[in-house]
Design brief:
The two termini are about 30 Å apart. The protein is globular. With about 270 residues, the chain is an alpha+beta fold. It has a single domain, classed as Sandwich (Jelly Rolls), CATH 2.60.120. The strands form 4 sheets. Strands 1, 3, 4, 6, 10, 11, 12 and 16 form an 8-stranded antiparallel β-sheet that branches. It has a 3-stranded antiparallel β-sheet with strand order 2-5-13, with no helix packed on it. The chain has a 3-stranded antiparallel β-sheet with strand order 8-7-9, with no helix packed on it. It is built from 4 helices and 16 strands. Strand 14 and strand 15 form a beta hairpin. Helix 2 packs antiparallel against helix 4.
């Protein structure tokens, strides 16, 4: 039985055109609904990159939905792809994804002092995580080197790291043991905000940039001063960079991405 009749957005059509085998099936249908929701919420229009790491197959899942002709991600050491779920890293085998997207030079909507970046983590590698952290260097523009937003857990120790250039982060105790949509936002160069599933969880009164600038964004790894020196063993379903989002939009982006996984039957919260 086919999917219900659905108007395919031009944005979805652009994604389909980049697929290994263009097809409108369950995954494309869900992606189209997700894009429609993000457009309606005026969020998709502000995204520089959106990776739906659960999509179709191990190649199509690396398409940048926000701009399908740009920043097609690449696998390093073949992290594990699971349809309708995402990519899973491996610490011992150094498996991760590199995007080629450099916030300092590649951004159209995301700004270091006024923008959001987030990651949807489906599985925690050890189930004992009690804190989430994200940060950057000291906000001095081109000297920034680090960008990350994912749960701290045994074996990685994000909170124990000092970001190059001084290092500032926001941290909090996640509701679901580190398995959520985590978003870090620089708000009008006045504060840094940490969100979990759309809920504001932490605020730093220190004005600093939301992400590193001079290195390509990596998924399932930690890029410190241009060197991958830590790896993430959990599973990630989404990664995005966007312009600054309102508090209402933070709730909506969480709902929209989770709704897609709910339609696939694999949502986590």
């Amino acid at each position: 039985m086919g999917q219900p009749c659905e108007v395919i957005t031009p944005q979805t059509q652009a994604v389909i055109a980049k697929m290994v085998t263009p097809v409108f099936n369950k995954q494309t249908y869900v992606a189209n609904i997700m894009i429609e929701r993000l457009l309606s919420d005026t969020i998709f229009q502000t995204m520089d990159v959106l990776y739906c790491l659960w999509f179709q197959n191990d190649s199509d899942a690396l398409i940048n939905f926000a701009a399908p002709s740009s920043f097609h991600a690449s696998r390093v050491n073949f992290p594990t792809f699971t349809l309708d779920q995402g990519y899973t890293g491996n610490v011992s085998n150094h498996r991760y994804i590199t995007t080629g997207y450099i916030p300092l030079t590649s951004s159209t909507h995301f700004q270091h002092t006024n923008g959001s970046h987030g990651v949807y983590v489906r599985t925690n590698p050890d189930g004992t995580s009690t804190e989430c952290a994200a940060g950057t260097s000291n906000g001095s523009g081109s000297s920034e080197t680090d960008n990350y937003v994912f749960p701290d857990y045994t074996g990685l120790g994000v909170l124990a790291k000092t970001c190059t250039g001084g290092g500032i982060y926001v941290s909090w105790s996640p509701a679901n043991a580190g398995v959520d949509l985590f978003v870090i936002q620089a708000f009008n160069n006045t504060s840094t905000q940490g969100f979990e599933n759309g809920t504001l969880k932490a605020t730093s009164s220190t004005a600093f940039h939301a992400a590193g600038g001079v290195n390509a964004d990596e998924i399932l790894s930690f890029n410190d001063a241009g060197v991958i020196d830590s790896y993430f063993a959990g599973q990630v379903s989404f990664r995005f960079y966007s312009g600054v989002l309102t508090l209402t939009q933070q709730v909506k982006v969480s709902n929209d991405l989770n709704f897609a996984l709910k339609m696939l039957g694999t949502n986590i919260y």
